[in-house]
Amino acid sequence: MASGDQRITVVIADDEPVVREGLRLILETQGDLAVVGGAGDGREAVRMCVELRPDVLLLDVRMPSGDGLWVLEELARTQALGANATHVLMLTTFGTDEFVDEALAKGASGFMLKSSSYEELIAGVRATARGEGSLSPSVARRIIDGYVAGRRNPAVDPADIRRIADLTSRERDVLTLLGDGLSNYEIADRLTVSEHTVKSHVSRLLAKTGCRDRGQAAALARRTRGA
């Protein structure tokens, strides 16, 4: 978790040393961010998170010795993932949403393209550390476009329908916006309510749906869109 000086601690997991170093240099321009480790493969990433308990793991989707999805499974198994542990922000060079739903369902808090701007990356790390999660605007746009174009399976799992059945209309609104990748601030602005109100809605909808965190709620929102 965060160190005594309240800096956000980060581990970077990517199999390319030049990428790890570049990300480190970007993040450490910010006084509130501290990179405490770098991992070159999945197994090393799990070991570092278990030992160091960073606030955020920047995790490449495709790595040797355990890809990003495997790392998420291992962190969940060792209870090193999520609230009071490490939040995971996935990184990819690919402009598709191929892994987004599965990664979020497995506990990732967000998804960013490596081509994202410095500002987007830094904001994403901070949002992830707060437990809010983050979707790169381009990733969120692709997900939304996928639904609009009808590229996804229209059948909705009845089990998912039951999970959202008890949500109020406002909680459904918040869930939908989580699925679009919006932060608490953006949801509050969209719904013309306070951030505190949004946080309360998020807490309640997580409890009602049985989602571990915002990432799982976002995946649920996309699976049940239009249901």
From TrEMBL:
Name this polypeptide is given: Response regulator transcription factor
Presence of the UniProt keyword Phosphoprotein in the record: yes
Pfam family, any one: Response_reg
Heme found in the keyword field: no
Domain named HTH luxR-type: residues: 160-225
Top-level taxon: Bacteria
Any single biological process term in GO: regulation of DNA-templated transcription
GO molecular function, one term: DNA binding
Positions where 4-aspartylphosphate occurs in the chain: D60
Keywords (A to Z) from UniProt: DNA-binding, Phosphoprotein, Transcription, Transcription regulation
Organism of origin: Streptomyces tuirus
PANTHER family xref list: TRANSCRIPTIONAL REGULATORY PROTEIN NARL-RELATED, TWO-COMPONENT RESPONSE REGULATOR
Residues spanning the signal sequence: none
InterPro entries: CheY-like_superfamily (IPR011006), NreC/VraR/RcsB-like_REC (IPR058245), Sig_transdc_resp-reg_C-effctor (IPR016032), Sig_transdc_resp-reg_receiver (IPR001789), Tscrpt_reg_LuxR_C (IPR000792), WalR-like (IPR039420)
Domain Response regulatory, chain residue ranges per copy: 9-129
